[in-house]
Amino acid sequence: MKELVCKHIKELIPYQPGKPIEELERELGIKNSVKLASNESPVGPSPLAVEAIKKGLRDLNRYPEGGGFYLTKALSKKWSLKQSNFILGNGTNDVLELIAKTFLMPKEEAIMAHPAFIVYQLAVQGVNGKRVVVPLKDFTHDLVKMADAVTSRTKLIFIANPNNPTGTMVGDSEMKRFMKRVPKRVIVVVDEAYYEYVSRRDFPKTLEYLKQGRNIIILRTFSKIYGLAGLRIGYGMAKEELINEIHKARQPFNTNSLAQMAAIASMKDKEYVKKLKKLNDEGKIYLYNHLGEMGLACIPSETNFILVKVKDAGGVYKSLLKKGVIVRPMEGYDLKEYVRVTIGLPAENRRFIKALKEIV
């Protein structure tokens, strides 16, 4: 078997998903646990999305619309772009892999931060590209060092903004300085999966670079605030020339019909998104206050999760698990003293704090 597998695939460390809640409860003998580990919306999708899914069930014998015509039309209206500026994916993971597959030749370089979204590394290694990793500075992307790392072999730069797992964000002025330094031949991939949760007013105006014709690909998703994580639907925005090339690597039906319908309906429910943003902001303040009272440091976040320093993260994770509270230990991201907790419903947040107080 070792002789059959490509070396760069054989050396991949696959993403490790968490166990289903039902299985964890069975193993630990607990009930009614709360999952605050995967940065999911604590509320179900918009009622409009649910209704769209119900209507779509009658036509599941038909293949989905391959290019996502109606969804890209809705997106083009929302962002004042052309339909030809969009590529849909089975989540942004899919789009990231398509980008790496389309633009990276073996051993060509892709720059990324660490720790950041693990799929950047997986996508690059999956096509035998060379990963150039730049450590975070103060838990935030160091755009100066990332620009310094560009060489003649650099093809891609990945920026998670806000960043997962730290929740931090680079501002507009930092991005402007960075884009001035980066050669125009390099493709900058800005992953804005948590865009709708951002409160800071200096969020980078990345769409302006697209409209200027720069080689930039902006990623957004319906998995987070829209609550469609189970349907796997995300998208990328870029100039037409880049999108046309990515389409060549895309499978004909890479997004399903129910996901497309639900995404269109979700965008219509603006009040629902406002409600969820308010719920998240209130939950964040509640957690900040109580974690501060406990003397636990946490990283200021522009997302729906908070990185909390607890020293023995593995031990705290296991202890919380026994109390029916599931968070994410960050040892796999070289943050051994931290756990990441998703901001949940008020009752879930209270249960997390109560359990954490009993432990630490």
Per-chain topology:
Layout lengths: L6 H4 L10 H8 L5 E2 L11 H10 L12 H11 L6 E4 L2 H12 L5 E6 L4 H8 L3 E6 L7 H6 L5 E7 L11 H10 L5 E5 L14 H6 L4 E6 L12 E4 L2 H10 L7 H12 L1 H24 L4 E2 L5 E5 L3 H10 L2 E2 L1 E2 L8 E5 L3 H14 L1
Helix pairs in contact: 3-11, 4-11, 5-6, 5-10, 12-14
Please give a handful of descriptors for the protein shown:
four-stranded antiparallel sheet; alpha/beta; 360 residues; seven-stranded mixed sheet; Aspartate Aminotransferase, domain 2
Question: What can you tell me about this protein's structure?
Answer:
The chain has 360 residues and is of the alpha/beta class. It has two domains: 17-44 and 271-359, Alpha-Beta Complex (Aspartate Aminotransferase, domain 1), CATH 3.90.1150; 47-268, Aspartate Aminotransferase, domain 2 (3-Layer(aba) Sandwich), CATH 3.40.640.10. It is 40% helix and 16% strand. The protein contains 14 helices and 13 strands. The strands form three sheets. It has a seven-stranded mixed beta sheet, with helices on both faces. A four-stranded antiparallel beta sheet has the order 9-10-13-12, covered by helices on one side. Helix 8 (172-181) links the parallel strand 5 (154-160) and strand 6 (187-191). Helix 12 packs parallel to helix 14.
